[in-house]
Design a protein that fits this description.
5-stranded antiparallel β-sheet; alpha+beta; manganese; globular; manganese ion binding; metal-binding; single chain; 20% helix
């Protein structure tokens, strides 16, 4: 196993971390070394589709979702607006192994580092320019891959890998995500580590930062 100190020196050399910012270092260290569990894919469907509940009329309405009509978007928020279309809100997807989401990124907003433990994501840019990042953990050292996406570009985020997006432009960005699971799951790294009241000693020792860094990060979580 590669030592923590060697990895940090490597990330600093590559410009991925800032030695002057303990908070940023802690967050990106988490992104690089989050433990990812292996999850089984959606079970194979032995029917053409899952029928609606008994007593419900089977017609075109069952296969239609209108959730993306007239959605309320916060155009000034610091975080991306995500409207998910998964099996929880669209039962017709049950057993089909797919789901979707519409993402709207106000200027300067970010979709925080996160993973989808049960599904691969492809992101299609409807309009605007978006910066994206993906961390690969298969190499001896974590590798960060970044890209600038433009209208009509597609980027893939393999299942379980940490990724993020940020809109650095002055215009809103709209994108459409497709997943290889009816419910791909969402693990937000900031919220998972700093929003559930983990013992502060665990976090300060794990990230080798002073307590005030953990308290600052925890205070930002909902």
């Amino acid at each position: 196993m590669v030592s923590r100190s060697k990895t940090i020196r490597y990330l600093l050399k590559m410009g991925f971390l800032s030695s002057r910012s303990p908070a940023v270092t802690a967050l990106l260290w988490l992104a690089a070394f989050v433990v990812l569990s292996v999850h089984a894919a959606d079970p194979e469907e032995i029917r053409d589709f899952a029928p609606p509940p008994t007593g419900t009329t089977l017609d075109g309405n069952y296969f239609t979702s209108t959730r993306l009509r007239n959605i309320n978007v916060n155009n000034k928020g610091a975080l991306a607006n995500v409207t998910a279309i998964n099996v929880n809100v669209f039962p017709a997807l049950s057993g089909l192994g797919v789901s979707n989401a519409l993402l709207v990124y106000p200027p300067g907003s970010v979709n925080v580092p996160h993973t989808h433990p049960r599904g691969t994501e492809t992101l299609f840019i409807i309009e605007g320019t978006l910066e994206v990042g993906l961390i690969d953990t298969t190499a001896p050292l974590p590798m960060l891959f970044t890209q600038t996406l433009h209208k009509d570009d597609i980027f893939v985020f393999p299942r379980g890998l940490v990724h993020f997006q940020i809109n650095k432009s002055k215009q809103a960005v709209r994108a459409y995500a497709s997943f290889s699971s009816t419910n791909p799951g969402l693990v937000s790294l900031p919220r998972t580590l700093f929003g559930v009241n983990i013992d502060i000693d665990v976090l300060t020792k794990s990230f080798e930062v002073p307590p005030y860094v953990i308290k600052t990060l925890s205070a930002q979580q909902p």
